[in-house]
Amino acid sequence: MLDRMARLARASMVAAVWGVSSPVGATPPDAIDVIDTLFGLSAEHLFVMRTAIDNMGLHAGRDATSVLVAVELATGTETVWPVYRGASRPDYEATDDVSAPWLAVGLPDDGVNPYAVLATFGGETILPGFDWDTTGLFPSDMPGPTVVLDTHHVAVMFEGEARNAAPTTNVIAAMSASLRDLAQLVVRDPVRACAATAADLLSGRDLHTEVCTASEPVALVSLQWDWPVQTVRITCLSDAQVTSLIVVLPRVP
Known about the structure:
Blueprint: H1 2-17, E1 32-41, E2 45-54, E3 62-72, E4 78-90, E5 102-105, H2 114-120, E6 124-125, E7 146-149, E8 153-158, E9 161-167, H3 168-185, H4 198-203, E10 212-220, E11 229-238, E12 241-249
Parallel strand pairs: 1-12
Antiparallel strand pairs: 1-2, 1-6, 2-3, 3-4, 4-5, 7-8, 8-9, 10-11, 11-12
């Protein structure tokens, strides 16, 4: 599912923003897409599943790494555990047919059970498909929020008033730090034709407001919190690589 999301996101964003496409037969550029999905919530942490999908510069192949990330709500500090690593490509030793059976290698030796980690923190899972209000605290006829990302801040607005916000520079800096940590801790380097490494592809991204958008505001409720935890998704396209991370926005005083 995440692989399909990454491919669709890259294709749609390239078409919409630059209006260009690569020839079908051309070798694609090496790219690693990074996509978050909501996973769980505890009294002190938001949990996301972060997946990095590396195309290895090939049409028919990928390396995938998934990690569980605990984001401390008070500080934004992230703790990361490996969950899955896999590689798939055609079995060219058996046949030249690109539709031949795919090779796949699975779980890392140091992989964790994400549900066990969540339970250790006293957290609960977040089901997919939530609308902007999962709390029932807002009137049913209240208009939904507007998400703003500009040079000053990332904000969730209700009827023109910012309820949750953070400086854009802080959000972008935190996203860049997350990518650097991902490169150092969990992403392997496959054999690739170009000289770039996974660390280069992940940590060298030029993230800024012109290549990023904000969407998917979700208000999450926990019985351990007096007010909903507000998240938004920040999606950036830099050098044909998708970065789509979920961030927590603090309440505006």
